[in-house]
């Protein structure tokens, strides 16, 4: 949704930067999370269930 921040993440950070750039170019408030996904889990973020 255009009225909410979209946080992008990936394994190492490169793809999320590109995704955030593309979303931003279409009017979304998108932000790339750094560091990569494994580092976020190690920092205590909850991993989403795949189902």
Automatic annotation (TrEMBL):
<dbReference type="InterPro" id="IPR001763">
    <property type="entry name" value="Rhodanese-like_dom"/>
</dbReference>
<dbReference type="InterPro" id="IPR036873">
    <property type="entry name" value="Rhodanese-like_dom_sf"/>
</dbReference>
<protein>
    <recommendedName>
        <fullName>Rhodanese domain-containing protein</fullName>
    </recommendedName>
</protein>
<feature type="domain" description="Rhodanese">
    <location>
        <begin position="1"/>
        <end position="49"/>
    </location>
</feature>
């Amino acid at each position: 949704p255009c009225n909410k921040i979209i946080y992008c993440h990936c394994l190492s950070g490169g793809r999320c930067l590109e995704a955030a750039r593309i979303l931003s170019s279409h009017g979304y408030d998108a932000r790339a999370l750094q560091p990569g996904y494994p580092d976020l889990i190690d920092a205590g973020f909850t991993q989403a269930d795949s189902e």
